[in-house]
């Protein structure tokens, strides 16, 4: 077997065998296949696609390219969740304490933000002292202590995906559905969960720009789940506009505190409660209950304050600091640079997620390059969302930087420009978009 034959076979639209895929994965992992051949192969996959069997073989082989977390010591069904990414996506820090408050063990391995999408690890690291490097040997102790943990994806978990992802990023081969599906699922399988709930975001601020692609990605993820013995549910959610009212690390964590204190915006609540109830359905707590009942049970965890208490326990368990009122101590205080007001009466018809994400990144909240240092206090507050009525002179949005590391005026000007383009105001009423398009079960 040699790599040139594999490239030619894929280029000609033929399906690869399990052995051929294993040859590719081991050659990438031990670095015996040169980057130019890997890149060429990835481009062939982008154009020719993969069968469900090939995608499953690639996923399973990638998941075995490093360590597999063994969570069997932890009693109960371990359900993981993952989002395909978005702007203002603060679902995990809200959902984890809710699910954990039912006594369900939650081991959540998350990533950092790159480009315009935020990362959960960065958001938690905006809390003073919070440590996200938890090694698998500490999982059991952490779960026994507070019932959940939030860790970074270590480099020994699916290392083949790490290498491939870096190459995809610079060879224009990220938007291939089988490559995205196998990339995400290989890490989830290596993470050791028994079942997986995926938030498949769809819209300008997501990888999947339209519903058809989001459905196809979901179908492939569910199929990988079936072929690897891990049930997968996909929640298709909207990323046409950012989720909630805050974008940026500390700002989003402040919104998390608001939601857990019962002051959450409808859109965030809808996505959180849907995802949390789908996770519960895989466990003894929720297996016989319908979706509405489970959502109401999850909402009660917020209303009763139980989820807020669990949130505090998670922070303390990972070395983070709390104020006397139970809210986190943040590493900085967002500094208000400017607030922009509506220039006319009307209805918000666009609050484009991609433009808001890019603007937030320009303010310092995200990384342009992997090595960039994030400004935890930077970001944007959105006062109006699609469908909202607006009057001339009312607040539309505020731009923030951190107090310590303000970016230059040119970047603030560019961020302002993108935000002005993100918003459109129509003279006629506009419907607020749906938050959840569909829920697909195995
Ligand atoms: N997230 C991943 O981990 N991989 C992809 O390919 C896309 C999103």
Question: Could you please describe the fold and organization of this structure?
Answer:
- The protein has 442 residues and is of the alpha/beta class.
- The protein has three domains: 3-49, Up-down Bundle (Transferase, Pyrimidine Nucleoside Phosphorylase, Chain A, domain 3), CATH 1.20.970.10; 79-327, Nucleoside phosphorylase/phosphoribosyltransferase catalytic domain (Pyrimidine Nucleoside Phosphorylase, Chain A, domain 2); 334-426, Alpha-Beta Complex (Aldehyde Oxidoreductase, domain 3).
- It is 44% helix and 15% strand.
- It contains 16 helices and 13 strands.
- The chain has helices at 3-11, 18-29, 35-48, 52-63, 91-100, 120-125, 139-146, 159-171, 177-190, 211-228, 249-260, 266-281, 291-303, 306-317, 353-362, 409-422; strands at residues 79-83, 106-110, 148-152, 195-202, 232-238, 246-247, 335-341, 346-351, 379-382, 389-390, 395-401, 423-426, 436-440.
- The strands form four sheets. It has a four-stranded mixed sheet with strand order 1-4-5-13, sandwiched between helices. The chain has a four-stranded antiparallel sheet with strand order 6-9-11-7, sandwiched between helices. Strands 10-8-12 form a three-stranded antiparallel sheet.
- Helix 10 (211-228) links the parallel strand 4 and strand 5 (232-238).
- Helix 3 packs across helix 8 (159-171), helix 4 crosses helix 10 (211-228) and helix 12 crosses helix 13.
- The chain is globular and about 70 Å long.
- The model has no long low-confidence stretch (mean pLDDT 93).
- Bound molecules: uracil.
